[in-house]
Design brief:
Blueprint lengths: L1 H51 L5 E2 L7 E2 L2 H11 L4 E3 L3 E8 L4 E6 L5 H8 L3 E6 L2 E6 H9 L3 H12 L4 E7 L1 H16 L6 E7 L16 E8 L18 E2 L6 H4 L2 H6 L11
Parallel strand pairs: 5-8, 8-9, 9-10, 10-11
Antiparallel strand pairs: 1-2, 3-4, 4-5, 6-7
Helix pairs in contact: 3-4
């Protein structure tokens, strides 16, 4: 009798434990099913939100009716359409300003815009340029233009940077202005001892201006872009000089396209900036 009772109790407790285990598993399955359904609902809502989200557009600061698919299209267009450049020295056209909306202190340089500028472009033999306590090597023409400004554009730029310590430091240039922008970046790094990073150095219709094959500003610039197009023959000048980076945009070289070199040099806002090499 006692043995039978023990067997009965053993079977009873085993049945209770088994029942509780089954219930627990069923509950967990139900919870998991509910969780999966909730996740699927969230994913569906997210997909709907992505489909409804409008693509990002970049509006010109100068002409608000002009919008662009890529930021650098907007940047070039605004450089091209800027008319209030200051002129100093040997026809060096520049602008130093602050954009509070995007929190940037910017210095930008205009393109080749007169016969004198073209003459300086052609003076392409190597020449030393002293920047504070350092000597760099560029072309004679670019050295003469930059030196004629007596460091005034850079000082105005640094004064604004000091007034806006939490703003990004940005340097832009186009054509001849691309050389001035790169020399300015180098001068800025010399003056700060390389202790301050430049947030952006972007140039269009970029001309090669460095004779020194070893030094580069890349390690001191967070974002550097030197845009050139194979059909923009201006960017072919000075084959013995170099750039810090290669950023080729637009279609590949063809004689037919290269015949429109001037158009290619003045319409960098038309290129696809997701596809540069």
């Amino acid at each position: 009798m006692k043995n039978n009772l023990n067997k009965f109790l053993s079977v009873f407790f085993f049945s209770v434990i088994l029942g509780l285990t089954v219930c627990s598993c069923s509950s967990k399955k139900a919870d998991n099913s509910e969780t999966q359904i909730a996740i699927q609902d969230d994913l569906a809502a997210l997909e709907d939100e992505i489909e409804q989200e409008e693509p990002v557009v970049y509006t010109s600061w100068i002409h608000p009716d002009k919008q662009f698919e890529f930021r650098d299209q907007r940047v070039f267009y605004d450089i091209k359409k800027t008319t209030d450049y200051a002129e100093i020295g040997e026809d060096l056209d520049y602008k130093v300003f602050v954009n509070d909306e995007e929190k940037m202190v910017i210095i930008q340089y205009e393109e080749t815009d007169c016969k004198q500028d073209w003459n300086y472009n052609y003076m392409c033999f190597p020449w030393p340029l002293k920047l504070d306590n350092k000597v760099i090597w560029t072309t004679y023409g670019y050295s003469k233009i930059y030196k004629s400004a007596q460091g005034i554009p850079l000082q105005q730029f640094m004064d604004l940077i000091e007034q806006h310590p939490d703003y990004k430091i940005v340097i832009w240039g186009w054509s001849l202005g691309s050389a001035m922008a790169k020399i300015t970046a180098r001068h800025f790094l010399i003056r700060t001892g390389g202790s301050v990073m430049i947030d952006e150095l972007t140039t269009f219709g970029d001309v090669k201006c460095w004779w020194n094959p070893f030094y580069s500003v890349k390690k001191h610039v967070k974002r550097i872009r030197e845009y050139a197009n194979n059909n923009d023959l201006v960017t072919w000048f000075f084959l013995c000089y170099r750039r810090d980076v290669k950023c080729k945009v637009g279609p590949g070289f063809s004689l037919k396209r290269a015949r429109k070199s001037e158009y290619n040099h003045t319409h960098y806002e038309e290129y696809d900036y997701t596809k540069w090499e």
